[in-house]
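Lecture 7 notes: from sequence to structure.
We start with the chain below.
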Amino acid sequence: MNMYTAGPIPTLIVATLVALLACTQAPAQSDVENAITYYGEDNIRGFIQPLADLYGADINSGFFHSAYIPAEGFHFNIDFVGAGSMVSDEDKLFSAKLPAGFTESTADQPTILGPRATLVTDVSGAQYKGSDGMIDASLFSYGVGQITLGAVQGTEAFFRFLASPELGSGKFPKTTLFGGGIRHSVSQYLAEPPLDIAVGVSYNTMAIGDIMDITGIVVGAQGSKTWDTFTFYGGAGWEKSTLKLEYTSTGNTPGPVSIELDGKNTFRVTAGGLLKLGVFKLFADANIGSVMIFSGGIGFGN
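Predicted C-alpha cells for the same chain:
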C-alpha cells in the first residue's frame, strides 16, 4: 500500500494559507488607536486628556429642550441631536516626559487634538518625537438619536443611540453610544407655577474602537417658559465623565496600559430656545462650564 507524505512545499503552502487567513480575520486598528498605542502610561494621559474633557462634555449634552412634562397621557418624540465642544489652545499641546538621558525632562508635544509632532534633539544627539495629533478641529462634535416616551405621573424616559462606522478611511475608529435617563415634573405640584420645572438624570456610555470607553452622568434641574410656538429653556446640573483606556503599548515603553481619566466638566449652566411648528421642532442651546458646549437639532413628536 502506498502512503502519501506531505513534503516541505505542500506544508509551506498550508502554513502560508493559515497565516493569510489569520491576517484577514484580525481587526486592523485605526490611525487614532495606533497613535494612542504609541505611548506608554508615562505620556498617554497628556495625549488623550482633551478627548476625555471634550467628548465627556459632549455626551452629557442635548437631552432636554423643555421642562414641560404632562402629568398623564401618551407622548412620543424622536430627536436628532448634535453637540460640539470648543477646542482651546491648551487642548492642543501637553508636556511630554522625555526618555532617560535627555538634558531636559519634558518637551511640548501635540495632544490627540494637536498639530504634527516635532522632533526633539538633545545635546547628546539623542532624539525623541511624539505621536502626531489626529483631529484638527476648533469644534469637537458628535451626533445622536434620541427617543422620549411618557408620561406617567409626570415622569418621562428617554433613550439614546449612536452607531458610527470608521471615518476618514480608517482614521477614526467605529463608535457606538447607548444612553438614557428619566425626568420628572416638579411644576405639577405647584398651584400656579410661573414656568415649567423638572428634574432629571442622564447616563451615557460610548465605546470608541476596541480600546477606549467614555461614560457620562448628569443630574440637574430644568426650567422653561412657552409663548405660542417658542419656548425658552435653561437648566443647571452636576456632571461627571470618565474615559477608560486598555491597550498594549508598542512605543518606547512597551507593555500593558490601563488608565482612567476624569473629564474636567463638573457643573454646567444651559440656556436655549425651542421653535415648535405642529409636530416639527427645532432647538439649540449653549452650555457653560469648564468646557463650552453648543448643542441643537431637530425633532418630531407631540
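Points to note: Residues 193 and 246 are 50 Å apart (CA to CA). The helical segments are 8-25, 31-37, 44-59.
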